[in-house]
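*** Backbone structure tokens ***
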Amino acid sequence: MSSDALTVRAVDARLVRVPMRRPLHTSADTVTHAPLVLLDLHTDQGVTGRAYLFCYREALGHAVVGLVRDTVPLLVGRSAQPDPVRRTLAAAFRLAGTGGTTAMLFSGLDMACWDALAVAAGLPLVRLVGAEPRPVPAYNSNGLGLADPDAVAREATELAGEGMTAATLRLGRPDARSDVATVEAVRRALGEDFDLIGDFNQALNLPDALERCRALDDHGLTWIEEPIRHDDYAGTAELAAVLRTPIQIGENFAGPRAMSAALSARACDLVMPDPDRIGGITGWLHAAALADVAGTPMSNHLYPEVCAHLLAATPTAHWLEYVDWANPILCEPLVPSAGAVTPSERPGVGIAWDEDAVSRYRAA
């Protein structure tokens, strides 16, 4: 089937509230359930493109569902190609604005459009964008929240027992010594060969970040993630200049232009865009080109199912962040093997909903 001929027939949006196997305890918030908006973009040609959005809060999920319902009439009967869909939405939201929740909606629909195109072409997404499926090194980002050092070390041992050799450790406790003690406890439990990532979730101001990151600089962290406000590029550039440990930012890049500004400011050593903020698959491909030109290693934030495809096609691909938050509502969840994730060979991204689970976790 030609993907060029696809036209939008309808878009369905459903909000589910999926319990997390390991709750997320960060310096910013505690999340015990994943609010996911499931998108189904149906075409007149009988092809359906699917995507989901992780909304952090249930109220935000309801807002996205409402926006989808308001937006569908603008798209029906029009091309399902990502670019015309985005242009239609951008024109409709010119006065209301195209950031925040609206940008999340644009990204989700972009991912659903690309999925539909790949399904229509009978190709996995990675092949549609010109690459071959290959394993991408992955780190476990489930758990390891802000608990006491011994509890975190025990959980880290459990995560290591699941077969992965890298993980995210949440930082940003009330005092620097507790963060250092936690890193040391996990190191004792797992050894020096385990790749450990420190994520502050923007918990610090610049003076505190200089103190804490220097205290952690000899602990062999793979990188230090978002120690200060995500858009303080001058501050993160100062940290990147004085620390031996790489500085990672990017999950909050609001489109490729924000990433370009960060790279121009030398604000980081590494980048990790989030598909729902960078602009979906279209935005990711632009961002990957920027990272390639800059020679900057690029990882992802969340959405491992689609990012397994995208990183396999990214010239400076680094690490895949693996979370299992969507697994309970997927028919065939993505499963790491030997410390890596390989994109699905099924047409499209390879996601399909487990409708019984969707019914069970459906948010009112």
The chain has a mean pLDDT of 96. The radius of gyration is 20 Å. The CA atoms of residues 90 and 349 lie 25 Å apart.
